[in-house]
Amino acid sequence: MNETTFSVTQRQSGSQTSSATVAFDGDQVVVEGTIWGSDGCKTADLTDVTYDSSADELRISVGTKDKPDAGDVCTQAIMEIDYRATATFENGLPGTVSVSHDTGDGQSPVTTATR
Question: Which segments carry the region annotation Disordered (predicted)?
């Protein structure tokens, strides 16, 4: 694995949504997902990316954290936070990609994709 990128693409009030899709695109694995935050100060954060070569598996973990500019007053609305993560591989893509989310109560599996 050569490079990993992560960005939040949208934040809006919503429900406790936890979902992700995995695409194998050229030399990249692209994960697009939605994680929920407990209040308006939350944003998504890439908490771990691990490639296990013996299992040929890429594991991506996404969590929530307070936004750096959050301040002291947060709306009490549940936030749906959309994100996009990419991992670029030089020597072929992994056979399996698993995605998990942590909204404050530990990691929960969201999806697993195989090539």
Answer: 94-115
Annotate 45-101 with DSSP letters as a single string: EEEEEEEETTTTEEEEEEEEEE-TT--S----S-EEEEEEEEEE-SS---SEEEEEE
Q: Is 35 helix (H, G, I), strand (E, B) or coil?
A: strand
What whole-number distance in Å separates Cα of residue 5 and Cα of residue 62?
12
Tokens for 1? 């694995």
Where the chain has pLDDT below 70, the residues are: none
Q: Please, which residues have CB within 8 angstroms of residue 31's CB and are 6 or more apart in sequence?
A: 20, 21, 22, 23, 60, 83, 84, 85, 86, 97, 99
DSSP letter (8 states) at residue 7: E
67 CB neighbour count, 10 Å cutoff = 16
Spell out the domain ranges in the chain: 3-104
pLDDT, tens digit, 9 for 90 and up, residues 24-39: 999 999 999 999 999 9
- Torsions phi, psi of 71, nearest 5? 75, -165
